[in-house]
UniProtKB/TrEMBL annotation:
One protein family per Pfam: Aminotran_4
Lineage top rank: taxon: Bacteria
Lineage: Bacteria, Pseudomonadati, Pseudomonadota, Gammaproteobacteria, Lysobacterales
Single Gene Ontology MF annotation: branched-chain-amino-acid transaminase activity
Pathway: Amino-acid biosynthesis; L-valine biosynthesis; L-valine from pyruvate: step 4/4; Amino-acid biosynthesis; L-isoleucine biosynthesis; L-isoleucine from 2-oxobutanoate: step 4/4; Amino-acid biosynthesis; L-leucine biosynthesis; L-leucine from 3-methyl-2-oxobutanoate: step 4/4
Protein name in the entry: Branched-chain-amino-acid aminotransferase
Protein purpose: Acts on leucine, isoleucine and valine.
Enzyme category, top tier: transferase
Catalytic reaction annotation: L-isoleucine + 2-oxoglutarate = (S)-3-methyl-2-oxopentanoate + L-glutamate; L-leucine + 2-oxoglutarate = 4-methyl-2-oxopentanoate + L-glutamate; L-valine + 2-oxoglutarate = 3-methyl-2-oxobutanoate + L-glutamate
């Protein structure tokens, strides 16, 4: 769907996958005026295809657009764009458990000019790709790497928006994590470098022995994850006490040492929930890479995926049928 300041949104269309045509002076190429979303569709046993809380993604795209000075796409149009794509995709037939169709909606500034200002023309696209099971050989705990040198977002910056620039900032720390045998990088808050923020592409949770579930509050520099929000709800439903607040690295280290913190996990659309075995850093090791996945972690993971795949009733009305 194209947008320009004079005419608003126009020319919604579905066409065959192929390269985009962009003017070399398009604002997106120079100033990173770009936002995106990640959302999946799941095929249920009866063949119907459903997506999970798409309005929440549409609303987050609107908040990202506001921060990046891009136009507001109506949430109904966002959901309709997923529906239209699924309507023409006849080839996607998931074969194994936990496969899905991953959507990547994105919006870019297309106006061609070289001064620095908000573009007056933009385009919204969605592409889709079948996604295999995130854990092909069963869910197993991952090791993550603490970035002590870099932050992914600044105070007052774009950390709460889902824009390409945040991910650009996380690529080098991510390389560092890989070199240390870790699959993801954990960032601390950009002001004091003391409190947990999130992983490169996931939110983070700690589970306490007394049944509390704690996750860093929405600090203004982390993404308001839809999986995070859903997990908080499922945990409350189970009668667990949930806390959204500042969590320091010291609290995690001391809590694991004293036995007060018994599980850690990360969450996001791609992996749903990933148990965290160990947090590694320069002169730092919290947890045990070889410990089994935590019970609470796996119980919530199972419940959430069962809802997504239609194996449990959708009691919160989270699923929206696409086909
Ligand atoms: N934080 C970051 C930086 C992410 O990229 C993602 C993935 N979108 C998340 C958290 C988790 O968000 P969600 O649960 O909406 O996928």
């Amino acid at each position: 769907i194209d947008w320009d300041a004079a005419g608003g949104w126009h020319d919604a269309r579905v066409h065959a996958y192929g390269p985009l045509s962009l003017d070399p002076a398009a604002a997106v190429l120079h100033y990173g005026q770009e936002i995106f979303e990640g959302i999946k569709a799941y095929r249920h046993a009866d063949g119907s295809i459903w997506t999970f809380r798409p309005r929440a993604n549409g609303e987050r795209l609107q908040r990202s657009a506001a921060r990046l000075a891009l136009p507001q796409l109506p949430v109904d149009e966002f959901v309709e764009s997923l529906r239209q794509l699924v309507a023409v995709d006849h080839e996607w037939v998931p074969s194994a458990a936990e496969t899905s169709l991953y959507f990547r909606p994105f919006m870019i500034a297309t106006e061609a000019f070289l001064g620095v200002r908000a573009a007056q023309a933009a385009a919204y696209h969605v592409i889709a790709s079948p996604a295999g099971a995130y854990f092909a050989n069963g869910v197993s705990p991952v090791s993550i790497w603490l970035s002590q040198e870099y932050a992914r977002a600044a105070k007052g910056g774009t950390g709460a928006a889902k824009c390409g620039g945040n991910y650009a900032a996380s690529l080098l720390p991510q390389l560092e994590a890989r070199a240390q045998g870790c699959s993801q990088v954990l960032f601390l808050d950009p002001v004091e470098g003391k409190y947990l923020e999130e992983l490169g592409g996931m939110n983070v949770f700690l589970v306490y022995a007394d049944g509390r579930i704690v996750t860093p509050e929405l600090s203004g520099s982390i993404l308001d994850g839809i999986t995070r929000h859903s997990i908080l709800q499922l945990a409350r439903d189970r009668g667990l006490q949930v806390e959204e607040r500042k969590v320091s690295l010291d609290e995690w280290r001391d809590g694991v040492a004293s036995g007060e913190i018994v599980e850690a996990f990360a969450c996001g659309t791609a992996a749903v929930i990933t148990p965290i075995g160990e947090l590694k850093g320069k002169d730092l090791s919290i947890g045990d890479a070889n410990a089994p996945a935590g019970e609470v972690t796996m119980a919530i993971r199972k419940e959430l995926t069962d809802i997504q795949y239609g194996r449990l009733p959708d009691r919160h009305g989270w699923l929206v049928r696409l086909r």
